[in-house]
Amino acid sequence: MIPGRVRSGLRRLARAALGGLDRAEGLVARTGDPDAIPIVISAIGRTTPVDSYWAEHTVRSTPFRTARASRRYLRLWAREYPLFEPLMELYGDHRTDTVVDYGCGPGNDLVGFLVAGGAHRVIGIDVSRKALELARHRLALHRIGSDRVTLIQVVDGAATIPLDDASVDLIYCEGVLHHTSDPDGILREFRRILRPGADATIMVYNRDSLWYHLYTAYRRQVLDGAFAGLTIDEAFQRNTDGEDCPISRAYAPDDFVAACGAAGFRTRYVGGYFAKLELELFASLADQAMKDGRLGEEHRQFIRELEMSSDGFPRYRGSYAGIGGVYHLVAPLAS
Predict the structure, then answer these.
(1) Strand partners, 100
(2) Which of 156, 213, 221, 293 has CB atoms 3.0–4.6 Å from 48's, for a disulfide?
């Protein structure tokens, strides 16, 4: 369970964020025709099973009816994923920035950056036409016009991003690269389109997490008898976004930092934010799992090394041990 003082702190963060959204929305320019926001289709590349899967499994696929309901959903994420907002550093002041939301889905963080962050311009990119249509509808509720947002549909079979070199001030990519066929190619494209000195914030699934070692390896494989005959990585793939999800990787932090470095970034691992389920299972099953010889030694050793931080969350080797592994990347200044 989440300690009471942490729950109170998260509620204060959520109320502050919502109040900021309410105030900011009154300042949004009412220019342009929100219903006329085009969806630009990139003609580069081939489709893969990733495209068809996410076309059918769009996250939050019910359209919002009001801007207030849309704002309320932003607050919901803070409750469902403890430490999500502080680790991802949302949403800041972006009044002069061009922001890319890669894998924008139906527009949760498009709204966050445009309304709460006041971004000058946001470019939302996704493989799912359905998700982009939902995002366009949601932006219309907030009276965001095409002068401030561009929506682009790409395909998984090509890492190419149809933007100019050094044309972007911030890249935000939450929960996407671990589902793609060529994450290294996408990272190289991120480096190309970011201006020197600019930042990227990326979340990929975290191998050093309660989800991987306690939920997947113990609760699902040992106690539930699920995923018989599969390796832990194969079981993890089927235990995140649906059993038929074609790609779902968990990255060890050192491995993802190395991949970002190979693409030309200076990279810092921040830690993993939590799904509420992870914290509930940690409270109820961690001691049992450590004593259960059916659980592999790798997973029991992970649980043994967990320590509680001063703010009441489990850490592994000094970093928060949630599924949402967060990395802050910087594009080096030109020499």
Answers:
(1) 123, 171
(2) 156
